[in-house]
Amino acid sequence: MADPKVKRVLMSVTDKTGIVEFARALSEEFGAQIISTGGTARVIAEAGVPVTPIDDVTKFPEMMDGRVKTLHPLVHGGLLAKRDNESHMAQAAEHGIEMIDMVVVNLYAFEKTVESGADFGTCIENIDIGGPSMLRSAAKNHESVAVVTDPATYDDILAEMRENDGATTADTRAKLALEVFRTTGAYDTAIAGWLAGQLGAAEQFPQKMSIQLTKQQDLRYGENPHQAAAFYRRSTATEHSLVNAEQLGGKPLSYNNLLDTDACWAIVREFDEPGVVILKHQNPCGSAMGATIAEAFDRAFACDTKSAFGGIIAANRTVTKEMVEHIDANKLFVEVLIAPDFEPEALELLREKPNLRILATGGIDMPGAEPEFRTVDGGVLVQDVDVVAEDPATFTVPTKRKPTEAEMDDLLFAWKVVKGVKSNAILVAKDHAGIGMGPGQPNRVDSCEIACKRAGEACKGAVAASDAFFPFRDNIDVLASYGITAIIQPGGSIRDEESIAACDELGIAMVFTGHRHFRH
């Protein structure tokens, strides 16, 4: 079947960008009849473009406050009739149904209405019914009907029609139809998520789950150069999340930049005091709190000056000129620096580094507002975000020696950081700084050895955190041999008594939290 010329166009848009120019070109260049609804018809008519109101077609007025206007056989018959089906065309002729060759529709701005804080009734009224119905009808019959949802495509469609004797091509119509079903699917997902929350029916893990994703950017490549990749924004992203961060300078973010920045930001935002985390390959090689953000950087950098090179830095306070000067003084190459905000003088200095990606989140959203998704072969795992939410008052100290106040402060700091270390994870901390890290080993003894060796002489009098329980006392023996004086761990092993006895024998205080913090 030849590509049908566009002779009859139905328009009903919320976003009226470019609609007058599009309607005028269709009318004047191609002789198309423009049919339109309500506000769209008024805008087109006021611009002097001939337009037929929808109720002149249906012979029914728009009614029920505009809820019913396009839901009519004279509309949907004109969209759904198969032009090469004699029976369809005979029925159309019998009932006076004229064909519609193009639909130009974008939907009520439901999500913006919700974001504006509108009340329940207003949000309900901004659930589009006629729009999705027209889009779906036209998209289903894209063999004959062009369906347009995005004002950005108007010029391209006109250009194609000029080259194709007033018709769109089958390839274009198919692509436009695909975009329709993506659009209506995302629209329904947004409505379902909002309504579930409003009605108190937001199950933690519903039987069916839809996720609305919008492409944020194409990435140069994925984890490795031979892998294609893109970055998508979840519709439920919180205001100050990574995906909403404003890039203030530097090259485009890479796949690995985003993974590491997310891991770094997740750790630092749980600190109460000014804090800095330096992360490399998903593990925090430096972490510290300080009286100022510059001091926190100095102490985090001192944790491991070698590994910090080429890492990601996250700060939980405004980055100051002093902090940037300290980065420069150490001649530290940084891939990404993320923080809530930047002093103007600090930003000026940072922008002198063309390769540094500078991200401002505008604030800090504590983790836990959204679930965490991870893909596996053929499926998706969904879980709550792991947050250090334990109340220290619920911790137990099963050893004879109790931690001093200073040790307890360091244990709490280490407990927050070790959550961000790949399991099996051990973190050695001293004076609110992570001075040694043992990540990702298949046995916990090796993690203890690595963490203590990294800490070196500073290990003496330091504390250690373990993301999971100690299965044997050999872990205690290793930590004690390097001078660790206090330990925090979940507890819960069948050999806990063995570990407790080892601590008592070696004069170490041990705290049980009752919660594990694996990070695979």
Question: Would you give an account of this structure?
Answer:
This protein folds into 3 domains: 8-198, 3-Layer(aba) Sandwich (Rossmann fold), CATH 3.40.50; 238-360, AICAR transformylase, duplication domain (Cytidine Deaminase, domain 2, 3-Layer(aba) Sandwich), CATH 3.40.140; 392-512, Cytidine Deaminase, domain 2 (3-Layer(aba) Sandwich). Helix content is 37%, strand content 18%. The protein has helices spanning 19-30, 38-46, 54-58, 73-80, 86-94, 110-115, 120-125, 130-140, 154-163, 170-198, 255-268, 293-303, 321-329, 344-350, 405-418, 444-455, 474-481, 496-506; strands spanning 8-13, 33-36, 52-53, 102-106, 146-148, 213-219, 229-234, 246-249, 275-280, 283-289, 311-315, 334-339, 357-360, 372-376, 379-383, 426-429, 434-438, 463-466, 486-489, 509-512. Strand 1 (8-13), helix 1 and strand 2 form a beta-alpha-beta unit. The mean pLDDT is 90.
